[in-house]
Amino acid sequence: MDGIDGATGPQGPQGNAGPQGPSGLDGADGATGPQGPTGANGLDGIDGATGPQGPQGNAGPQGPAGLDGADGATGPQGNAGPQGPAGLDGLDGATGPQGPAGATGPAGNPATDDQDLSLSGDILSITGDPTPTPTIDLSVYRDNTNLATDNLTQDAETRTYSMNGQDLGFTNGSFGIGTNTPDARLDVEGGAVRFTDYAAATTPYKNSSADYLLATDADGDVVQVNSVKSSRIFYPPSIAVDASTNGTFSIDLYAQYIAQFGSPVVSSGGAIPTYNAIELDYHITYADPTVFNTGTMSITPAGVLNYTIIGQPTDYNALINVVFVVK
């Protein structure tokens, strides 16, 4: 068994502080205290450097127009301008009332003022003239021919005319020349039809893209014939072009064409028809660009080809195609 505790001894010296223990949990926040008084404003700081100019903004809407200012004083009168063109004529006004009749003049003198004009056959005369007037013979002024009626026979459907053995006839919408019994809309018999002076002498031919020509059949009737555009195109005779030396040269294509087509070496008979220079158009459809400068080539309306050689053909052959087209 424990004995009775003795009396407490004196306080011993304080020991060294032990290490700090871990922090305890935060206590609950206390109530917010009252707002303190506002402090005095501090001094303004130094202004910073100006920044770069920003992009221009979009233009705002136009504001309302301002009030009109007071009119200025009238300036001096300007010089008169030139007269303008005349305006259109206005409508004619209504016809005015008939004016009063004039006074009747004095009566004539039957002894001196009345004459009679008379015609007897071809003789024209005046009678009752106080001054003697010679008669006039009118026969010299006419040839007694009436083209409207002489040698004209007609009925309800036919009109014919004959003069010096030449006949004209108009029957049921058909017209005859050299016949008074036409059997076509235009019937020409016993003569030729000629067209002259229908174009200027310097330009007797005209380009045309028409596909048809007029011709006559065995009976002499005019018919429409397909001209075929390709028949207007032909190749001229072959010629030699010297390309051994570079340089600029010319060839008269038309003269070469006439020289060969106009004088063939041999023919079975007849002649080759040829065209005049102004009746043709001239074309180069191909030229070897290694031999010819195709950018400077040109042909005159008379058929003269101007060309420049820029190189020699490697195999002694080069192509250039020429085409003639009948206008």
Element string (H = helix, E = strand): HEEEEEEEEEEEEHEEEE
Report the β-strand fraction as a percent range.
Answer: 15-25%
The order of strands across the largest sheet is 4-5-6-7-8
Q: Tell me, what's the shape?
A: elongated
Helicity range: under 10%
Average predicted confidence as pLDDT: 79
Q: How would you characterize the largest beta sheet?
A: 5 strands, mixed
SS summary, helix count? 2
Distance between the termini: 159 Å
Parts with pLDDT < 50 across at least 5 consecutive residues = none
Give the structural class: mainly beta
How many beta-strand runs?
A: 16
Radius of gyration: 61 Å
Main traits of this protein?
3-stranded antiparallel sheet, 327 residues, elongated, mainly beta, single chain, 5-stranded mixed sheet
Structure description:
The N and C termini lie far apart (159 Å). This protein has two helices and 16 strands. The chain has a five-stranded mixed β-sheet with strand order 4-5-6-7-8, with no helix packed on it. Among the domains are: 152-188, no CATH class; 231-326, no CATH class. With 327 residues, it is mainly beta. Strand 2 (123-127) and strand 3 (136-137) form a beta hairpin.
Layout: helices, strands, pairs:
Elements lengths: L109 H4 L2 E5 L2 E5 L8 E2 L14 E3 L3 E6 L2 E6 L2 E4 L8 E3 L23 E5 L5 E5 L6 E2 L12 E6 H9 L18 E8 L10 E2 L4 E6 L10 E7 L1
Parallel strand pairs: 7-8
Antiparallel strand pairs: 1-2, 2-3, 4-5, 5-6, 6-7, 9-10, 11-16, 12-15, 13-16, 14-15
